[in-house]
C-alpha cells in the first residue's frame, strides 16, 4: 500500500529509537489489556461518519486511498482512531449518528466534525456535553435491549450488533477535542488574551464530562450524573491539542508576518495557545488521576508527535508541510473545498500522491500522516505515563 511506503530507513530508525527510549520499568510484566470496546468523543480528527450522516455529506475524493469511496472521514483514508482500533484487534468504530450498517458490538463513536468542548462554539450542535449525553442514552437503551432480547436463546441472534452491558466498564474511552474551540476563538476575537482566558472554562467542561465534584465531594455513586465515570468508564486515553498554527489553512488565513512564523513556517501565536491549552489539560488530567485512583488516565502528546513530523517532513518522505493535497486556497479569501462540484465538474480535486502530503485538505491530515502519528504514539513514547495503548488499563504506582 502506498501509504505504508512513506517510511524511509531514517523514519524506521527514529521509531525504533522511540521504542527503545520508553522507560523499561513502565509496563514490565504487565499483561496486554483486552479491551472489548472503544467509546470515542471528539471532532473531525476522529469522526468516522457522524457529520456525514447528520450534517453534511463528505464527498469524493475523501476516502479514496483506503476505502476507495467516501467513508464519512475528513481524510483520504484512515484516521488515528482507526489505527488505534486495528492495534487493539477491534473493528473500525461505527458513528453513533449513522443508522446505516452500524454495528456497536465493540463500541461506538460519538465524535462529530465541527464539535467543540464549549456549547456556544459556533461550528456545530454536538459539543462534548451533548456527545456524553448521547453515550448515556446509548448505554441505557442498548443495555435494556440486551436484557430484553439477548438472554432469551430463541431470539439471541438479534444481539449480534449490541454491546455487552459488562463491557462498558472494561472498554477504553478516548477523547480528542478542543481544536474547534481555539479556531473559533481566533475567528471571533483574534485577541490572545481573550482566548487564553477561555481555556480554564473549556477544561472545566472537559473535566465535568469525566466526573463531577459538588460541595467538595466526589459524586462517584451518583446515578443521575451525565458523566462518564459515573457510568462505569475507568480507562481513558486523552489526546492533546494539535499544532494548529502549522495547518496550511492557518498559515494562509492569518497571513503571518516573518516575526510570527517559526523555522517550519508555522504561526507561532496559534501554536503557543495550543501549547498553553495542552499545559492546562495535562494538569487537569493529573487532577483527575488523583481524584479517581480507581481509573487509569493516559495523556497523549499528539502535539509533539505531529510537530516532530512537520519538522522532519522531508526526511520522512513528505513534501513541504505547508502544502496540502485536495482543494485550494487563493487570495482575498477565495477557497475551493476539497471535492466541491459545480454543474457536475469537480473543482476541488485530489493531488496525485496523497501519501506525500502531511495535510489532506489544509485542515485535516492524510492517512499517511495519521499512520505515522499512530505508530509514534500508540507505543507510549509521547504519553504520560509512558504506556502503550495495549497496557493503558494498568495504573502505574506513584
Compact overview of the structure:
Residues 1-27 form the signal peptide. The chain contains 10 helices and 12 strands. By secondary structure, the protein is of the alpha/beta class.
Number of strands: 12
Mean pLDDT: 87
Helix content: 25-40%
Largest sheet: 6 strands, mixed
End-to-end Cα distance, whole Å, is 43 Å
Low-confidence stretches: 1-22, 214-225
The whole-angstrom Rg is: 21 Å
Q: Helical stretch count?
A: 10
Which class of secondary structure composition applies to the elements?
alpha/beta
Give the spatial strand order of the biggest sheet.
2-1-3-6-7-12
Signal peptide: 1-27
Family: Belongs to the 'GDSL' lipolytic enzyme family.
Organism: Gossypium hirsutum
Pfam family, one: Lipase_GDSL
Description:
With 398 residues, the protein is α/β, with parallel strands linked by helices. It has helices at 9-21, 50-54, 80-87, 128-150, 179-188, 192-210, 248-253, 268-291, 302-311, 367-377, and strands at 38-42, 107-109, 172-176, 213-214, 217-218, 235-239, 296-300, 328-329, 335-336, 341-342, 345-346, 383-384. It has a 6-stranded mixed β-sheet, covered by helices on one side.
Amino acid at each position: 500500500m502506498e501509504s505504508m511506503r512513506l517510511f524511509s530507513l531514517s523514519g524506521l530508525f527514529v521509531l525504533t529509537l522511540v521504542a527503545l527510549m520508553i522507560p523499561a520499568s513502565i509496563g514490565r510484566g504487565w499483561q496486554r489489556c483486552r479491551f472489548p470496546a472503544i467509546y470515542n468523543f471528539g471532532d473531525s480528527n476522529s469522526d468516522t461518519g457522524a457529520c456525514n450522516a447528520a450534517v453534511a455529506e463528505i464527498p469524493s475524493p475523501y476516502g479514496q486511498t483506503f476505502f476507495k469511496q467516501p467513508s464519512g472521514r475528513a481524510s483520504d483514508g484512515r484516521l488515528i482512531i482507526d489505527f488505534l482500533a486495528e492495534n487493539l484487534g477491534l473493528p473500525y468504530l461505527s458513528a453513533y449518528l449513522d443508522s446505516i450498517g452500524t454495528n456497536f458490538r465493540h463500541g461506538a463513536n460519538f465524535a462529530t466534525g465541527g464539535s467543540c468542548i464549549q456549547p456556544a462554539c459556533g461550528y456545530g450542535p454536538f459539543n462534548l456535553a451533548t456527545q456524553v449525553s448521547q453515550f448515556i442514552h446509548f448505554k441505557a437503551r442498548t443495555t435494556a435491549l440486551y436484557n430484553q432480547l439477548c438472554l432469551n436463546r430463541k431470539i439471541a441472534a438479534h444481539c449480534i450488533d449490541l454491546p455487552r452491558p459488562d463491557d462498558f466498564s472494561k472498554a477504553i474511552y478516548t477523547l480528542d477535542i478542543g481544536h474547534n474551540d481555539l479556531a473559533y476563538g481566533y475567528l471571533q476575537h483574534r485577541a490572545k488574551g481573550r482566548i487564553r482566558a477561555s481555556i480554564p472554562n473549556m477544561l472545566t467542561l472537559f473535566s465535568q464530562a469525566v466526573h463531577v465534584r459538588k460541595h467538595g465531594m466526589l459524586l462517584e455513586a451518583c446515578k443521575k450524573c451525565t458523566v462518564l465515570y459515573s457510568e462505569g468508564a475507568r480507562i481513558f486515553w486523552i489526546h492533546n491539542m494539535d499544532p494548529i498554527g502549522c495547518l496550511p489553512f492557518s498559515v494562509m488565513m492569518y497571513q503571518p508576518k516573518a516575526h510570527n512564523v517559526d523555522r517550519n513556517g508555522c504561526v507561532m501565536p496559534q501554536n503557543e495557545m495550543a501549547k498553553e491549552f495542552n499545559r492546562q489539560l495535562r494538569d487537569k488530567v493529573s487532577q483527575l488521576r488523583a481524584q479517581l485512583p480507581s481509573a487509569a488516565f493516559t495523556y497523549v502528546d499528539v502535539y509533539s508527535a505531529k510537530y516532530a513530523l512537520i519538522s522532519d517532513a522531508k526526511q520522512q518522505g513528505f513534501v513541504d508541510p505547508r502544502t496540502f493535497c485536495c482543494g485550494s486556497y487563493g487570495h482575498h479569501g477565495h477557497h475551493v473545498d476539497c471535492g466541491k462540484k459545480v454543474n457536475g465538474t469537480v473543482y476541488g480535486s485530489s493531488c496525485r500522491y496523497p501519501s506525500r502530503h502531511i495535510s489532506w485538505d489544509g485542515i485535516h491530515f492524510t492517512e499517511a500522516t495519521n499512520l505515522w502519528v499512530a505508530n509514534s504514539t500508540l507505543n507510549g513514547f509521547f504519553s504520560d505515563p509512558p504506556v502503550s495503548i495495549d497496557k493503558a488499563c494498568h495504573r502505574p504506582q506513584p
